[in-house]
Amino acid sequence: MSESDHAAPATGAEGHYRALERLYASAPVNAKFASTLHIPGEGLSRLTFTVTREDYHAAGAAHGTIYFKMLDDAAFYAANTLATDRFLLTTSFNLHFTKPVREGTVIAEGRWVSGRRRVFVAEARLVDEEGEEIGRGTGTFMRSRIALSSLPGYTASA
């Protein structure tokens, strides 16, 4: 066994970030998307997504639902790093499509902008494999009545 096999579970902020990553991975909708979430620190998130031809609209590029999914998730998780007790809900989201994306890896970078009590604002940007921005968005998120600790994906062991 390696030393990391005996390491204590992450607690505090790091524990919250790892629990949010597990929550993302456990959401049934994410079985439909080749993606992973990493939270590097407070107010930040990074989603790595793989776009395939199965995500295309009739004109041969990724459908807008893919943009929205990636941007909303990245902004949401960046905001939820600041809410350690409650699950947040998206109340509005505005997005801009900069250029079409085809097959490949796309990174969604989320960043908290403001709010710490009831309403949070966060933004996200999408970057393609060439490092070019392909979209961006800003969302408003509100605390729900759902305790994070009540969600099996959040509370599951690492």
Structure in words:
With 158 residues, the chain is of the alpha+beta class. The protein has a single domain, classed as Hotdog Thioesterase (Thiol Ester Dehydrase, Chain A, Roll), CATH 3.10.129. It has 3 helices and 6 strands; from the N terminus they run αββαββββα. A 6-stranded antiparallel β-sheet has the order 1-2-4-5-6-3. The N terminus is likely disordered.
Major sheet size, sense and barrel closure: 6 strands, antiparallel
Our Rg estimate from Cα atoms comes to 16 Å
Helix fraction bin: 10-25%
Q: What is the beta-strand fraction?
A: 35-45%
Structural class: alpha+beta
- Unreliable parts: 1-6
Label the overall shape: globular
Would you spell out the secondary-structure blueprint of this structure?
Blueprint (H helix, E strand, L loop, with lengths): L11 H15 L7 E5 L5 E8 L12 H17 L5 E12 L6 E11 L4 E9 L5 E15 L4 H4 L3
Antiparallel strand pairs: 1-2, 2-4, 3-6, 4-5, 5-6
What labels would you give this structure?
single chain; 158 residues; alpha+beta; Thiol Ester Dehydrase, Chain A; 6-stranded antiparallel β-sheet; 23% helix; globular; disordered N terminus
Tell me briefly what this model is.
The protein is α+β, with helices and mostly antiparallel strands and 158 residues long. 23% of the residues lie in helices and 38% in strands. The protein is globular, with a radius of gyration of 16 Å.
